[in-house]
């Protein structure tokens, strides 16, 4: 609705303003409508807004995206795209959205609500039909943004990230750095007088990789269709409804423009719900209103006129209307700031020499996959780009042939549908650390979360595919929250702050005082809406004192390098010797093994079963991983919903592992972090089906390759080192109580062996405690001991000391201790007796 509907309005109602173009021809000649004059042989320089182009950079809406992501297919597509741009004398700079954008938070909340509903539709579809969902339900695979960013860096395509306001920075970057055009799909750009504006949704690479086509929007034709002078687009955009002044606040104004005689007037109030007029009707009515203005510079008079029907918060609406005009005025000029100015002239082509490119493509082909110019490319239909949300009110529009838009209920879209909370003040961060964070953030070399955690103490986590009715698997937000808690602790150097507080308390002879550090997490998952954030406490490591962030990022000593790796492994709960042994865990599979090991340590229900662990490891070692053409031909019968959710969980873990790696100073080179080195969603689904449904042995999962079996066993042993991971007991043929797979295996009270019963009662006695007694260890520390008893008649044999070792949950030690003490009997398998 509002401004965001203007882009679709152009395509539906202004056909003469949408012109198909071939970018290679534009690079050889001039732009439609008379392009900027370029010196001979200079490249056509285009800025790409990645936020609107992610699905195209991923390779399109092919059906296997739901399996968790096919990253080598994406890599092949981007390789072909980079090659086509080089051969066609086209230079790209891709700008990712790295801004927190609190002003657009209500838009993000709406989007998360819609995507959460889509995720449930996807799960239901897979459960009922066992086939991939239709592409109108496309949800970006988890971590897709960062995978694309890493792939673009790999192929030496220029990458930047916005930092405060994504749209303003993209416009400023385009205007002030000599770009010939912008490739995007956002109404804000259309209304901000971008000289040469191309469609990101229509961007298509031909199958032979030689033709790159898209559509160009001719905004002077749009202005002609609307009969509106482009210099009034600022007022026009402000009155359509936008992120500053939402269309809900303009509903009364929009209905007043239509008048009581309009065919839609009867829909203004239906079932006691105020509704919004269709977007195309609003656009025409607002264009007529703005065209007939006598003085569009008198904002006070305009505000008084448009809000004369307002019944609440009129003063606030007037203020926000003026802010909207100010925003679009700044965006339409050459403008407020450019954090990238002067840094990107001929950026990529200075790196992109012909011999380098050819050698690089040969290297990629040999090491990973066969790139072919014949890779099929599925075209994208703009009408299928976004899932539609149905509304009961829309059913009343069937009799009106020219109105196809659905009218959402106003009550379903509150003006400000999120509620912020106050957090404790953030600790001070060293200025040089902030400079490094800002520099790497802008260059696209660091996770965007990091800068905003350091400066704002906030993070936004997008929806993933999960079945909210299924309690077998935790949500990704909850499962990997301990990683983020330790990441926050590393970023704010909590270990060093704790030591300082303890030294100060010792000098003053009093208890240490710790200032809590909390980060706001905006997320939507099972039982949690995105409208309010959660305060998540930052945690230091308990096992060791982590170096401060300055040493992790800027230290050059050997101990600093070792500290980076140890901090990363500690964040992932994978600080085991075998994890750093390349003979057991190859370097490019370290992220994979760390994520799987972390998933196995979830308390309560077991996230990964033994066969599923083998399937993850087998697909990472399969040669098919680097053959996307073969994987495209792979057929999967009856897609498993649990497998789809496991893939989404795993990629969420990879997302957090890459974040932890950046925070800890990148101890793992980014070339070894890329998911295409160890994961393909479709290949995983095929392995899971063979392992679980077909009961295939490990040798079959490894396609009969004995060396792969040995590697899988070594990695499995390294992952399980120090973990009490054992398969759950087989189900009993008769009805019996269900014991949680990951919990303590002790029977309920009515099944406990009674100590006073004789042998004649039919229940065999458990062997009694040895004469040496036993002890309970938690995290390597002895917390309880008990004495033995005298060996009586018939109780001969060797005395055995019982030692019980249990891993303690470091986030909740007290609760874990209580639980573990209750588990003492089943762990030791010896009943305790009262002493006489």
Automatic annotation (TrEMBL):
Gene3D superfamilies: 5'-nuclease
Membrane-spanning segments: none
Protein source organism: Oncorhynchus kisutch
Matching SUPFAM superfamilies: PIN domain-like
Upper lineage: Eukaryota, Metazoa, Chordata, Craniata, Vertebrata
GO cellular component, one term: nucleus
Name listed for the protein in its UniProt record: Family with sequence similarity 120 member A
Family: Belongs to the constitutive coactivator of PPAR-gamma family.
């Amino acid at each position: 609705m509002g401004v965001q509907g203007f882009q679709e309005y152009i395509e539906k109602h202004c056909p003469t303003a949408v012109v198909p173009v071939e970018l290679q021809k534009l690079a050889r000649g001039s732009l439609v409508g008379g392009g900027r004059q370029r010196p001979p042989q200079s490249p056509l320089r285009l800025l790409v807004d990645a936020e609107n182009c992610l699905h195209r950079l991923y390779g399109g809406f092919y059906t296997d995206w739901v399996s968790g992501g096919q990253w080598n297919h994406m890599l092949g597509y981007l390789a072909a795209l980079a090659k086509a741009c080089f051969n066609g004398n086209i230079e790209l700079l891709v700008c990712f959205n790295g801004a927190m954008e609190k002003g657009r938070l209500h838009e993000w909340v709406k989007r998360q609500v819609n995507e959460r509903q889509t995720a449930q539709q996807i799960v239901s579809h897979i459960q009922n039909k066992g086939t991939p969902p239709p592409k109108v339900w496309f949800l970006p695979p988890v971590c897709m943004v960062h995978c694309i960013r890493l792939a673009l860096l790999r192929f030496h395509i220029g990458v930047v990230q916005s930092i405060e306001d994504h749209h303003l920075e993209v416009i400023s970057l385009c205007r002030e750095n000599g770009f010939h055009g912008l490739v995007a799909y956002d109404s804000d750009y259309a209304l901000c007088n971008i000289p040469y504006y191309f469609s990101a949704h229509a961007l298509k690479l031909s199958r032979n990789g030689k033709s790159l086509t898209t559509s160009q929007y001719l905004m002077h034709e749009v202005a002609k269709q609307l009969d509106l002078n482009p210099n009034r687009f600022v007022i026009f955009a402000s009155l359509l409804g936008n992120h500053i002044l939402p269309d809900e606040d303009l509903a009364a104004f929009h209905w007043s423009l239509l008048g009581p005689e309009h065919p839609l007037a009867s829909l203004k109030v239906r079932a006691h719900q105020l509704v919004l007029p269709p977007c195309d009707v609003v656009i025409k009515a607002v264009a007529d209103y703005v065209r007939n203005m006598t003085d569009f510079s008198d904002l006070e008079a305009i505000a008084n006129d448009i809000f004369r029907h307002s019944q609440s918060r009129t003063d606030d609406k007037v203020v926000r209307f003026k802010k909207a005009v100010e925003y679009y005025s700044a965006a339409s000029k050459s403008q407020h700031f450019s954090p990238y100015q002067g840094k990107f002239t001929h950026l990529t082509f200075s790196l992109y020499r012909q011999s380098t490119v050819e050698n690089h493509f040969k290297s990629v082909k040999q090491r990973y996959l066969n790139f072919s110019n014949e890779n099929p490319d599925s075209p994208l239909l703009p009408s299928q780009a976004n899932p539609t949300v149905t509304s009961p009110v829309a059913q009343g529009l069937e009799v009106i042939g020219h109105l196809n838009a659905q009218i959402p209920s106003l009550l379903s879209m509150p003006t400000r549908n999120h509620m912020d909370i106050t957090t404790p003040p953030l600790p001070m961060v060293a200025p040089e650390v902030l400079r490094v964070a800002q520099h790497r953030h802008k260059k696209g070399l660091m996770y965007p979360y990091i800068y905003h955690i350091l400066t704002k103490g906030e993070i936004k986590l997008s929806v993933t595919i999960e079945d909210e009715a299924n309690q077998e698997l935790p949500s990704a937000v909850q499962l990997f929250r301990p990683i983020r808690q330790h990441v926050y602790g590393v970023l704010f150097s909590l270990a060093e702050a704790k030591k300082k507080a303890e030294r100060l308390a010792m000098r003053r002879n009093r208890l240490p005082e710790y200032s809590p550090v909390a980060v706001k997490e905006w997320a939507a998952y099972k039982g949690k809406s995105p409208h309010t954030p959660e305060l998540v406490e930052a945690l230091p490591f308990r096992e060791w004192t982590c170096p401060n962030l300055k040493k992790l990022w800027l230290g050059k000593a050997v101990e600093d390098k070792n500290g980076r790796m140890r901090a990363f492994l500690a964040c992932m709960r994978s600080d085991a010797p075998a994890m750093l042994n390349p003979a057991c865990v190859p370097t490019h599979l370290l992220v994979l093994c760390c994520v799987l090991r972390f998933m196995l340590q979830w308390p309560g229900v077991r996230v990964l079963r033994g066969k599923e662990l083998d399937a993850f490891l087998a697909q990472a070692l399969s040669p098919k991983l680097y053959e996307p053409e073969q994987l495209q031909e792979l057929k999967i019968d009856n897609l498993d919903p649990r497998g789809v959710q496991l893939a989404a969980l795993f990629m969420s873990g990879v997302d957090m592992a890459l974040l932890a790696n950046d925070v800890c100073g990148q101890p793992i080179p980014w070339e070894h972090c890329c998911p295409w080195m160890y994961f393909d969603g479709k290949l995983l689904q095929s392995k899971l089906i063979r392992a679980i449904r077909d009961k295939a042995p490990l040798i079959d999962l490894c396609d009969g390759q004995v060396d792969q079996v040995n590697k899988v066993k070594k990695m499995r042993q390294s992952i399980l080192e120090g973990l009490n991971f054992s398969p759950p007991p087989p189900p009993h043929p008769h009805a019996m109580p269900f014991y949680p797979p990951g919990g303590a295996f002790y029977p309920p009270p009515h099944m406990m062996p009674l100590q006073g019963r004789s042998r004649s009662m039919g229940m065999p006695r458990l062997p009694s405690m040895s004469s040496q007694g036993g002890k309970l260890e938690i995290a390597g520390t002895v917390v309880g001991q008990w004495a033995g008893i005298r060996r009586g008649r018939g109780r001969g044999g060797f005395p055995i000391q019982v030692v019980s070792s249990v891993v303690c949950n470091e986030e909740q030690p007290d609760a874990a201790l209580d639980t573990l003490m209750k588990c003492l009997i089943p762990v030791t398998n010896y009943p305790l007796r009262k002493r006489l």
